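anyone seen this seq b4? input:
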Amino acid sequence: MSDDKAKKNQLNIQLDEDIANGTYSNLVIINHSATEFVLDFVSVMPGVPKSKVKSRMILAPQHAKRLLKALSENIKRYESSHGSIKDDQKQQNIPLNFGPTGQA
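predicted toks r here
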């Protein structure tokens, strides 16, 4: 591929400073409809009875599947470098009967 063609196909992504800092999340609530997946990222803190959604991502089903594949591949790479990720936390019984159901 020529340099001109490679430059033409390059994607220029801008990362604003406030977004670059990220948002901590230790819970993701996933809903879906026929046309989209809705991922609500929440930060639940011990002893705090109320938590807010910190970020919401809305994905087309095809993008949700690509995200699953990319995350799976990255976890495999991480574990091959750093060892197995332990999932030894007890399952929290968080009631998930709140908010919208993700219907379009």
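The mean pLDDT is 87. The helical segments are 3-8, 17-20, 61-82. kinda curious what u guys think
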